[in-house]
Predict the 3D structure of the following.
Amino acid sequence: MDYADKIILLANLIKSSGKVLALTGAGISTESGIPDFRSKDWLWNKIDPDSTSLPALLRSPETFYKQNLPWWQQCIKAKPNTGHLALAALEKQGWLLGVITQNIDGLHQRAGTKRIWEIHGNLNDCSCINCKNTFPISQLYKSYVCCHCGGLIRPAVVLFEDTMPEAYFTAEKVLSGCQLLLVIGSSLQVYPAAALTDLAQSIVIINNEETPKDDQAVLVIREHAGKVLKDLLGHFTDQFGPYPVSM
Ligand code: NAD
């Protein structure tokens, strides 16, 4: 099947499915200039995965923040791309119930997505692990030492070896009865996030490289997410979706 036929098939799958959700990963934001972790040549080659874990933060906050603050700053400054905007438009038109994201960059919200579950947290704020006082994320760029108690400040993102946040368990519930899950820009190698695909009746994978779950998908489109979602949106000009704009 050629690319154009795949887009038509995807549009028809969405139109004929009762409950459609998207699960996004770092790949949807690379076109906004934020590196992902697992594409060749990207962030993982420059950052040691072990150094982004909770134990690494506790062991050496200075090294941890030296590694992570620069790319978090990229996330904070980035602008949504056509992929984020197309998903927001599909939600607004009623075709997409919402977005479950592994991303911490906040770009879906900045694009206008209203129903969003950030299963790996976000960069909105940070808090002291000792006294639990919270601060805007800008505080971390001044000091990681709490001004109230001298404890260590950490961001509201999920680090390796953290427990999963409430949003993850809510996403599990939201996926109940999901007929079609659009899995966009994820290597599907990070668990438990990757296991969420098992909760949908069928999945479509939009990714520019192979993933371990390609053979479980009803459709695989190996292309840039921004192009695919923009082309897909061209097939939805009317607001006939099953979901009201505000729920
Ligand atoms: P990942 O880095 O493991 O995989 C990204 C996938 O997207 C790769 O398979 C890559 O080939 C693909 N990809 C890259 N650019 C693409 C494009 N333009 N179109 C289509 N596909 C593209 O990402 P992951 O599965 O989300 O797991 C990484 C973890 O790291 C996540 O849990 C996330 O929290 C975190 N992370 C977040 C950001 C962010 O918030 N933007 C960035 C890097 C990492």
